[in-house]
Amino acid sequence: MRRPESPTTLRVLVVEDDAALGMLLAETLEDMGHDVCAIEATEAGAVTAAARYRPDLMTVDVRLRDGSGISAIERILRTGFVPHVFVSGDSLRGQALTPAAVVIHKPFRTADLARAIDHALRGPAAASCGVNPPISERCRLRGA
């Protein structure tokens, strides 16, 4: 995993198939002080962009019109761990997520996104050390 140059600025890859939501999420991340390296709308585009930009963090819509955010992450993680936050507007029951998956549900507030990012940056080691909550509570952040 590539470390960011500044402890507060991350290079973020946004994977969102709704163009308006992708732009809004990118703007929110930039307002939080991060650099958005790309916005991708497909599984294939996400995999290519991750290899090209080597992001510090990815926000990934679970359901894409062309492919799957979950499949994109599985493919990307084969080359090394990249912290990621799954973003979903749907229930994720029955989805094959890893035990350390960080999920935030649409709609959400900036503070919820910041907490999800913090959990994601702790990485898979944090989950095995008991830092993350149990799977029933794991980062299922909901906006009010």
Tally of DSSP β-strands: 6
Q: What average pLDDT do the residues reach? A: 81
Strand content: 15-25%
Percent range for helical residues? 25-40%
As laid out across the biggest beta sheet, the strand order is 2-1-3-4-5-6
User: Which architecture name does CATH use?
Assistant: 3-Layer(aba) Sandwich
Enter the CATH topology name: Rossmann fold
Number of domains: 1
Which ranges are low-confidence, i.e. pLDDT below 50, for 5 or more consecutive residues?
1-5, 126-144
| Total count of helical runs of at least 4 residues | 4
| Major sheet size, sense and barrel closure | 6 strands, parallel
Work out the radius of gyration: 14 Å
Structural class designation? alpha/beta
User: What distance separates the N and C termini?
Assistant: 33 Å
Shape: globular
Key terms for this structure?
19% strand; 144 residues; alpha/beta; globular; single chain; six-stranded parallel sheet; 4 helices; disordered C terminus; 6 strands; Rossmann fold
How would you describe what is shown here?
The protein is of the alpha/beta class. It contains 4 helices and 6 strands; from the N terminus they run βαβαβαββαβ. It has helices at 19-31, 43-53, 69-77, 110-128, and strands at 11-15, 35-40, 57-61, 84-88, 103-105, 140-142. A 6-stranded parallel beta sheet has the order 2-1-3-4-5-6, sandwiched between helices. Helix 4 links the parallel strand 5 (103-105) and strand 6. Helix 2 packs parallel to helix 3. The model is unreliable at 1-5 and 126-144 (pLDDT under 50).
Quick take:
This protein is of the alpha/beta class and 144 residues long. The chain has a single domain, classed as 3-Layer(aba) Sandwich (Rossmann fold). It contains four helices and six strands, in the order E-H-E-H-E-H-E-E-H-E.
